[in-house]
Amino acid sequence: MSKKRMVIALGHKDLGYTLPEQKEAVKRTAVMIGDFVESGYQIAIVYSNSPQVGMIHTAMKDLSENYPEQYTKTPLAVCSAMSQGMIGYDLQNAVRAELVKRGIYKTASTILTQVLVDPYDESFYNPIKLVGKVMNAAEAKKEEDNGNHVQMIADGRFRRIVPAPTPKSIVEIDAIKTLLDADQVVIACGGGGIPVLRQGNNLKGAAAVIEKDLAAGLLAKEVDADILLITTAVDQVSLKFGQPDEKKLDKMSIEEAKQYIKDGHFEFRSMQPKVEAGIEFVESGNGRKAIITSMELAEKAVSGLAGTTIQ
């Protein structure tokens, strides 16, 4: 009997916000992954990278400005690639150590992953994602003079804002499938993947970011997963979140989930992409389910005892 296959999308909380936090967080995350591997699942891991790519982007920008003769500006796509290596290094080592401790000897491998996006995606005309450090008005003006978009986040404080195009296809999907078929743990599409545009035979990095939940849903479809598990800061999806009449949801049908989105129940930049990814994955094949919950309740949620399931 073939093993069940699961794609896990990890949120900020499960990876930490600084390098020391990351090194501790991945140890806890590896326990969850080890439990699923021990239960017989083939696992592919996707993760958020916003804090890390922001840190890298800020550091490289400061270096190029303070030492222009030694360092050049680093494109956002390259910063994304650097974050994949930075997070993947700690995560794959933590997973390996956890599996060895359990007497399970299999490789955990990080795939530097590029994701194709449409150059005419609406997001390129309406950027929504904040990246990099907080700037004053003079720094923001300079950023705009360089052709980038900025947004005021408070009085006199600005940040760069970039597009978040929809992922269309995963460039390294064959390598990911090969590793999963060999029953290895795969870490891929970090931060949603490095967004790239096709230019003839070449791929060109785009100054954008991809919602990691949407990339995880795409990956889950492409590898024919049984379960898409999205971990987040809350235990369940809610209607009227944070309000006195908040209603927690144990289950949603595809039709219900679509209606909740239409009615504006989910925060556009956080919960809505998770629900959208779940809908698209579940719609793409029979017997599939998407689960949204906290890492602490992940195992119970997969067993149907916690979290929110879209099925």
Features:
311 residues; four-stranded mixed sheet; 9 helices; 17 strands
What's this, in brief?
With about 300 residues, this protein is an alpha/beta fold. The chain has helices at about 20-40, 50-65, 75-100, 135-145, 175-180, 210-220, 255-260, 270-285, 300; strands at about 5-10, 40-45, 110, 115, 130-135, 150-155, 155-160, 165-170, 185, 195-200, 200-205, 225-230, 235-240, 245-250, 250, 290-295, 310.
Low-pLDDT segments, ≥5 res: none
Overall strand count: 17
Q: Kindly report the spatial arrangement of strands forming the biggest sheet.
A: 3-9-2-1-12-16-17-15
Number of H- or I-type helical stretches: 9
Q: What's the helix-strand series?
A: EHEHHEEEHEEEHEEEHEEEEHHEHE
Largest beta-sheet details: 8 strands, mixed
Distance between the termini: 23 Å
Mean pLDDT: 93
User: Roughly what fraction of the amino acids lie in strands?
Assistant: 15-25%
Shape label: globular
The percentage helix is 25-40%
Instruction: Please state the structural category.
Output: alpha/beta
Rg = 19 Å
